[in-house]
Amino acid sequence: MRCAERRRFASHRFRYLVIVEILLSVSLFSGCSKSSQPVTITFFDSDGRGVPGDHRMIPEGYLQEFTRETGIRVNDLPTPEDNGSKLDLAMDFLRSGAPSPDVYGVDTIWTGTMGDYLIDLQPYFPKEIASEDREIIESYMVQGKVVGMPNQPLGVQVLIYRTDLLAKYGYKTPPRTWDELEKTAARIQAGERAKGKKDFWGFIWAGAIATDSEQLAMEGLEWQAAEGGGHIIESDGRISVNNPNVIRTWERAANWVGSISPPSVVSYTATDAENRFWVSGEAAFLLSHAIVYEIFAQDKPFRDQAGVTSVPAGKSARVGTIGGYALGISRNSTHRAEAVKFIQFLLRKHAEFTANHPQKPGRKVEYFEVPSVMREIYPWWYKPGESGGSEIVSRPSTVAGMNYEAVSKAYTRALHSVLTRESTAPAAAAALENDLVRIMSNGRGQPATGSH
After folding, report:
1. Which of 125, 241, 280, 316 is buried most, with the most CB atoms less than 10 Å from its CB?
2. Which pTM was predicted?
3. Pairwise CA distance, residues 15 & 177, whole Å
4. 232 by DSSP, 3-state: which?
């Protein structure tokens, strides 16, 4: 049995065992006629690592506190490790009509796929929805329904930079545009290599096609949206990939490879890129996430020499893609009131945490024109009077719906073929347009060979 087949077999077996476990639990609880029996709701932790008790999305202490306050127990469901298998398992439950799980973690790119099976949260959280950033809420809207309540700091893309190197080469601010970044990265790279650092590069990013990551799709969307090339699929369903602005951005990125970015960047995962910048110190700029900056800046070697700013602008805009998870309730749940209480509790805990951590971290930091949406999440990032921070842009998961996975795969393969020089940008964009038209017209499909 080949590796891929073994992984599929293991994934299907995992899903089967989890479904059996849940259905058995539901049967046992529903068969109990005692009114004093505590209500148990099941939480599908979409951000977990497949290990029971490992809560990356919701701390264990929160679950215990919720039970103490309400008497409602929470069964934390183990989930597969990779995102694709998580979504498959979630959809198995939702399509089956099973009354459990009750509450689901909803990735921003799952909204269109899961939306029809989740309830509208607007009647239950009107004030919370009204106070949230509209663009964020729209990431969790399907046919007018709000199917997810954001409960985490957003994963907005940012540009991280070495403050000491910018000062060393006479730059007072980080680059605001892609043209400025190219020039600055090339100059710093040349200067550091002249001092003996032969493995130093100007700009690091994740250029790999990774089955468990959408990093390249997010980067590509930023590049084309910044140049006025569209959003891959527009809200009206129009395909926007085969146009001069997209082609120009793909060609520009391909020119980075081997010049200001290492040739191996086309095989870099997000972790590879982060380690090259934070651990090895062999790069001046890194394209990454806001939450990653906050995590790495705590204890990495270059924590006091790293600043953060918005993703550079093109001729049209300065944008950063968003990611993250929200909380949704299954339309099949028989414990809707308890599920609502659970989400209310988690929103309250998130607000308390934010209120209790208003101070700037105890480290040397530099923030410049940060993404506007992050100013509420990390208030210490914001400098009064600054402007020019990026706005957020969402991947076309809502409009693509059930087809989003196929759309994303086709897009990243087409872009990657240009980065590796396996295809020209005009040819890859034309083939991708045909692929996306077919995928959106005929349902799920595999990208045609022309986009590989």
Report:
1. 241
2. 0.85
3. 46
4. strand
